[in-house]
Amino acid sequence: MNGQSPMGLAAAAAAAVRPCRRRLLSSATAASAARITSTSLFPRCPHPHRQPHGRRLPFLASAASHSQASQSGQNISVTPVPADPRAAVSGSLPFFDRVLFPDTSPLAPATEEAAATAATADEEPASATEAREETETEREAWRLLRRAVVSYCGEPVGTVAAEDPECTETLNYDQVFIRDFVPSALAFLMRGETEIVRNFLLHTLQLQSWEKTVDCYSPGQGLMPASFKIRTVPLDDNKEAFEEVLDPDFGESAIGRVAPVDSGLWWIILLRAYCKITGDYALQERVDVQTGIKLVLSLCLSDGFDMFPTLLVTDGSCMIDRRMGIHGHPLEIQALFYSALRCSREMLVMNDVSKNLLRAINNRLSALSFHIREYYWVDMKKINEIYRYKTEEYSHDATNKFNIYPEQIPSWLVDWIPEKGGYLIGNLQPAHMDFRFFSLGNLWAIVSSLTTPKQAEGILSLIEEKWDDLIANMPLKICYPAMEDDEWRIITGSDPKNTPWSYHNGGSWPTLLWQFTLACIKMGRPELARRAIAVAEERLAADKWPEYYDTRSGRFTGKQSRSYQTWTIAGFLTSKMLLENPELASILTCDEDLELLEGYACCLSKKRTRSSRRAANSHIVG
Ligand code: GLC
Questions:
Q1: Which of 113, 214, 311, 373 is most buried (CB neighbours < 10 A)?
Q2: If you measure from the C-alpha of residue 4 to the centroid of ligand 1, how many angstroms do you get, rounded to a whole number?
Q3: Who lines ligand 1 at CB under 6 A?
Q4: Closest Cα partner for 473 from 542, 565, 566, 575?
Q5: 480, 553 in Cβ contact below 8 A?
Q6: CB-based contact 250:221 (threshold 8 Å)
Q7: C-alpha R_g of the chain
Q8: In this structure, which residue's CA is closest to atom 7 in ligand 1?
Q9: Whole-number Cα distances in Å, 590 to 67, 142, 459, 519
């Protein structure tokens, strides 16, 4: 991040470099000494009303109107959200859905009026959200998820990546990973336990851009860590007092030393989900939170040498965090980037400075969706076009813009591409298309409306058609197909963890179930998700909730897989809860934005005539 950036973030950026620590005192003397000397570096998160496990949750439909107003860039007057979410239940906010979860302990209504409202709702006829007895597997999953919770100074702040009692070599699986926590957060949010998510969001914000270096080089300001760990260290010279410190890892300790590009994007996506489900919009409007969003955006939107609207990243900068040949413009990052831009646009408080930022976001969103929809999409027709491409075209209106040699079409694809449906390829670079199918990128492109609705349907239809390749014995293949032989040797650097059909190289990752469920719900195909969940439910508990599965059909537990992997557990719970409360999917999804299509049409009109613009528009919406 450049301090003189047009977004005027210099002062804010400085404020974002904050060590995150709190003191734990082991004696009264030390306590009083510390009270005098220590200023609280960390802002206390006010949690005036601890929320009991399993309660009625106000899911604010008013969130939709709030976000629409923000999207259109109006200077919105924000609906005042009471600090106590129970006030929302009492009906002091315009609309809300009521969701009842198993194990709910009724929340004491704040007023008599609220009691009356609650009583009426309780008498309403049974609906799809009626309480259901949890299965044994779900009960076990909840117990394990709670076991994975870590606390910082007595407050829950996240979940460790894995809590495997049989594994002696923890590596960094005892850390709270930003991306891994997302499904945990969603499970807790949907159960009404919002405190842990709020704490997580605020603590990771404190860690953003903390000065850490790899061999004298600092990561860009705005970078969120891949993970953090809570350490207890002695307080200065005082042997009686200790302090707890949050220790982030920006990739400087990670295997391969890769900066996690996805962390900041996930943080923004989760922030929006938290605010939408709780109605606590005051959180997103806090100055430090607004600064956090702008720093992430600033890092992503800064100018570089790249000609594409997609984000240029190194290999391993996302869920696939080892060398797998995804450097360049991998789909997963582009889908998360698009989603984070859409979420930020809803959350940014409008003023003169953010007006420029909003313009930059809108421009990028149009260009990005145009680029992905046009150039990443493949189906039978498109593959056939590529097959007949002319090469070495030098001009503005070349058909084969990226100079793709048809010989690149892999032999597996020729037989694999179905008549119906299609997908977004994994990566696009000059003279290179990575034709592998990457699940997370495709699913999140559906969830965020990066694809057209027709493309979204096409992706689900392909997954259905290729069920035995992508789901088989365990949902879901991280990518298809695996790289083998020389390709594996050259591209992974002979990585023994990423052998063919294992781990990132064609392994099956049950955590991806929640993203699949979300995409299915969005596209009105919950039955597909239900089928996949049934496959997973049969095995996960018996297999001790593995991190991943191996082999072409996902039959074996992964060679080096952890047991009791938290995002496997949370992904399963989140999938089940989403299916039962499909209206909650909207805290994560974005709808097709018709205004953006105008920008999209402009991109098209640069290369087509004015008269074809209407035709282009109908193609996009279709
Ligand atoms: C592995 C995965 C990564 C995950 C981490 C913790 O490194 O590749 O995506 O975040 O484990 O579970």
A1: 311
A2: 35
A3: 161, 177, 179-180, 319, 321
A4: 542
A5: no
A6: no
A7: 24
A8: 321
A9: 10, 29, 17, 11
Instruction: With a cut of 80, say whether residue 441 has pLDDT above it.
Output: yes
Atom of ligand 1 nearest to the CA of 567: 12
User: What pLDDT, on the 0 to 100 scale, is given for residue 361?
Assistant: 97
Report the atom number in ligand 1 closest to the C-alpha of 172: 6
Pocket test for ligand 1, best of 319, 438, 492, 505 (most atoms within 8 A of CB): 319
pLDDT digits (tens, 9 = 90+) for 65-108: 344 444 443 333 333 333 333 233 222 222 223 222 333 332 33
Ligand 1 centroid to Cα of residue 200, in Å, is 18
Those residues whose C-beta lies under 8 Å from the C-beta of residue 310, and which sit 6 or more positions away, are 329, 333, 334, 337, 368, 371, 372, 428
- Quote the ligand 1 centre to 318 CA distance (angstroms): 9
Residue nearest to atom 6 of ligand 1 (CA): 161
Contacts (Cβ under 8 Å, ≥6 apart) of 245: 19, 20, 21, 230, 231, 232, 233
What pLDDT, on a 0 to 100 scale, did the predictor assign at position 538?
Answer: 96
Name the residue with tokens 């990443």: 376
Residue of minimum CA distance from atom 12 in ligand 1: 161
Cα 189 to ligand 1 centre (Å): 22
Q: What is the band of 366 on the pLDDT scale with cuts at 50, 70, 90?
A: very high
Query: Do 595 and 72 meet the contact criterion of CB atoms below 8 Å apart?
Result: yes
Judged by DSSP in three states, 232 sits in strand
Burial label, 287 (beta-carbon count in 10 A; 0-12, 13-18, 19+) = exposed
Cβ atoms of 179 and 319 closer than 8 Å: yes
